[in-house]
Amino acid sequence: MDWSKSEVQKLINAKNDRVTFTKYDGKSPVWKYFELVKVDNASVPFVRCIQCSCVLKWKSKDGTSGLSSHYDACCKKLPTSTRKLTDLASMQPAVPKVPTHLKSDLADALVWTCAKDIR
């Protein structure tokens, strides 16, 4: 039977016993975040993201660039508390944006402090 992505996703969301997952020992490091999907013990052309349980269409000839793109986007959406320590090592630190009015207020306060100290 040809399964659609939405049908497979519904089975996974319902935690149906017909769906099983297997790890794939591919060369790419992205495989530690994905599992191959089987329905009724038959392989289907889909993988599941371990982080968000999203189903992605995948065939071996497709390569892993799509999986890597999904993982990069998926990891950014996750709250920090659900990320693993190993995931954090590959991420760039988030630098908060300081509003312009606060920068201006800080600059004024520094100028005032310097002027007052020099008298």
Describe this structure in words.
With 119 residues, the protein is an alpha+beta fold. The chain has one domain (5-118). It contains four helices and four strands. It has a four-stranded antiparallel β-sheet with strand order 1-2-3-4, with helices on both faces. The chain is rod-shaped. The mean pLDDT is 80.
Distance between the termini: 85 Å
Tell me, rounded to a whole number, the average pLDDT.
Answer: 80
Q: What order do the helices and strands follow?
A: HEEEEHHH
Strand arrangement within the widest β-sheet reads 1-2-3-4
Oligomer: single chain
Structural class: alpha+beta
Low-pLDDT runs: none
Report the total helices: 4
Largest sheet: 4 strands, antiparallel
User: Which geometry do the CA atoms define?
Assistant: rod-shaped
Global Rg: 24 Å
Please report which band the strand proportion falls in: under 5%, 5-15%, 15-25%, 25-35%, 35-45% or over 45%: 15-25%
**Helical proportion?**
25-40%
The number of domains is 1
How many β-strand stretches?
4
Question: What is the strand and helix layout of this fold?
Answer:
Layout (H helix, E strand, L loop, with lengths): L4 H9 L5 E5 L10 E6 L2 E8 L5 E3 L7 H13 L7 H5 L10 H19 L1
Antiparallel strand pairs: 1-2, 2-3, 3-4
Summed up:
The chain is α+β, with helices and mostly antiparallel strands. It has helices spanning 5-13, 65-77, 85-89, 100-118; strands at 19-23, 34-39, 42-49, 55-57.
